[in-house]
Amino acid sequence: MSSAPNGSVIQRQSPRPDLLAFEIKDKVTKDDIEWMSAITDAAMKTHNKIDMLIIMSNYEGTELAASFDSYANSVKARSVAHINRYVVVGAPTLAKAMINLSGLVLPVETKTFDIEEEDAAWNYLAQKPSAAI
């Protein structure tokens, strides 16, 4: 398990190399976003398609500078072509609605789970992706 520079985000162990799992434990900083983006960028180059799991165990928001980081935004834009499934555990209500809505308009399968359903999220990602993707 590795962590972002300030420890607000950790990379969780995953059962396969094409599944990235991050746990957010505090306020997300610009350094955190750049660290996560670099890991995601490398995974997308290594594995054309990846799944991503975000566990928001204690999400305290995101610094404004992190939201406008150019490298992170370029990785996010390219990720649409590389992410099969994007699963978030413990998302705040508004974020949950936005994640579920984006799954309707983007070619990415999205799903949200409540924080106590983390095991269900891992089990969901253990299944083969749907043929629609």
Strand content: 15-25%
Unreliable stretches, pLDDT < 50, 5 or more residues?
Answer: none
Radius of gyration: 14 Å
Give a count of the beta strands, DSSP E runs of length 2 or more.
6
Helix and strand sequence: EEEHEHHEHEH
CA(first)-CA(last) distance: 29 Å
Largest sheet: 6 strands, mixed
Count of alpha and pi helical runs: 5
Widest beta sheet: strand line-up: 1-2-3-4-5-6
Overall outline = globular
Please identify the structural class as seen in this structure.
alpha/beta
Describe, in plain words, how this protein is organized in 3D:
This protein has 133 residues and is an alpha/beta fold. Helix content is 40%, strand content 23%. The protein contains 5 helices and 6 strands; from the N terminus they run βββαβααβαβα. The chain has helices at residues 30-46, 64-67, 70-79, 93-105, 118-126, and strands at 2-3, 9-12, 19-24, 50-56, 83-89, 109-113. β1 and β2 form a beta hairpin. α1 runs parallel beside α3. The protein starts with a strand and ends in a 7-residue tail after the last helix. The mean pLDDT is 89.
List keywords for this structure.
single chain, six-stranded mixed β-sheet, 6 strands, 40% helix
Topology record:
Layout: E1 2-3, E2 9-12, E3 19-24, H1 30-46, E4 50-56, H2 64-67, H3 70-79, E5 83-89, H4 93-105, E6 109-113, H5 118-126
Parallel strand pairs: 3-4, 4-5, 5-6
Antiparallel strand pairs: 1-2, 2-3
Question: In brief, what are we looking at here?
Answer:
This protein has 133 residues and is of the alpha/beta class. The protein has 5 helices and 6 strands; from the N terminus they run βββαβααβαβα. The mean pLDDT is 89.
